[in-house]
Design a protein that fits this description.
The chain is 73% helix and 2% strand. The protein is mainly alpha-helical. The chain has two domains: 138 residues, Farnesyl Diphosphate Synthase, CATH 1.10.600.10; 168 residues, Farnesyl Diphosphate Synthase (Orthogonal Bundle), CATH 1.10.600.10. Helix 1 packs across helix 2, helix 4 packs antiparallel against helix 17 and helix 10 runs antiparallel to helix 16. The chain is globular, with a radius of gyration of 20 Å. The two termini are 18 Å apart.
Length: 335
């Protein structure tokens, strides 16, 4: 059973969106294992392992919630779509872990550390293939939306890689990467939900904008937690981006608040590939402040506010209030 989405309780969300959504999330879990292990594929063990590694299941939750509050009646009809969306997400996480050399994912061994590089790559590819196989059950426009979101993720990954040598990354460059890697896939969820329900183009466009804003806020919160979160709740080490010399909203706000000489020293230490404990202490002394955390949170809140404004295109107050509450929970979660 799904016991939490993020680190707020199922009871809290059940009161908000209804037990029926959590029941269908449980059905989705069984379906994900079933479709990941069929066809006697040689990679089924590693594929199922990655699917069962936990996670927030935020994207299916968002899909089911939008579907329900905009008049959807048959949850079973969109379980394959939810599975396709989650499989794409899991595949991108596998490839992320390969690129980053991550050994942990959600408190368990990452697939690359457990099964090796070759099987991890093939498992990620396998999940992409299964996802688009499931997408063929729906009208082609929905499949194109999912495919386009994958292209954005690839472009964002490459842009992030090229930016590793840009020590003075701007806030605008950071937001662009976040938009491509995180926000566009979430926008694909909100967009495909209303496309499936045959809403008009005006609603489809607004729900895509909602997803983009929510997705940016979601990633900003993730990046805040990497510095200010609890390792036990997150299931991974803190400061992963700092150790690798990857700028996120926190380090960008920190460096932008320094004078020229301080900034030069900060960036010289920041770019080191093998940081000493002294290096980490120096960097964190410039980063770990309530003021920086608050500035980042204020930016996340602004994106949530602008995202929620897009919901006014649908004259449904219950729908708007529900998604507004979910959006606010996204940026107040602890994992």
């Amino acid at each position: 059973m799904i016991s939490h989405v993020g680190h707020y309780s199922q009871d809290t969300l059940e009161d908000l969106i209804g037990k029926d959504v959590f029941d269908v999330l449980d059905s989705l879990e069984k379906y994900l294992v079933k479709v990941s292990s069929e066809d006697n594929s040689l990679v089924r063990e590693s594929a199922v392992y990655s699917i069962q590694s936990g996670g927030k299941r935020f994207r299916p939750l968002l899909l089911f919630t939008i579907y329900k509050f905009l008049g959807g009646q048959d949850f079973n009809s969109i379980i394959p779509l939810a599975a396709a969306i989650e499989m794409v997400h899991t595949a991108t996480l596998i490839h992320d872990d390969i690129i980053d050399g991550a050994t942990l994912r959600r408190g368990k061994s990452s697939i690359v550390s457990k099964y090796g590089l070759t099987e991890a790559i093939i498992s990620g590819d396998f999940l992409f293939v299964k996802a688009f196989e499931l997408a063929t059950l729906y009208k082609s426009d929905i499949g194109r939306v999912l495919a386009k979101s994958c292209r954005y993720v690839a472009d964002g990954e490459l842009m992030e890689e090229k930016m590793r040598n840009n020590l003075d990354m701007s806030m605008e460059e950071y937001i662009k990467i976040v938009e491509m890697k995180t926000a566009m896939p979430i926008a694909a969820v909100s967009k495909s939900a209303v496309m499936y329900l045959d809403y008009p183009e005006e609603v489809i466009d607004s729900m895509e904008k909602f997803g983009i804003g929510l997705g940016i806020a979601f990633q900003i919160k993730d990046d805040i937690l990497d510095y200010f979160g609890d390792e036990k709740k997150l299931g991974k080490r803190l400061y992963t981006d700092l150790r690798r010399g990857n700028h996120t909203i926190i380090s960008i706000i920190a460096k932008n608040g320094l004078n020229d000489s301080e900034k030069k020293k900060f960036l010289e230490v920041f770019k080191k590939s093998n940081k000493t404990e002294e290096d980490m202490d120096y960097l964190l002394s410039n980063i770990k402040s309530k003021e920086i955390e608050k500035k980042a949170m204020d930016i996340a809140k602004e994106y949530v506010y602008n995202a929620v404004e897009q919901l006014n295109v649908v004259k449904n107050e219950e729908f708007r209030k529900t998604l507004e509450e979910i959006s606010n929970k996204i940026i107040t979660r602890e994992s």
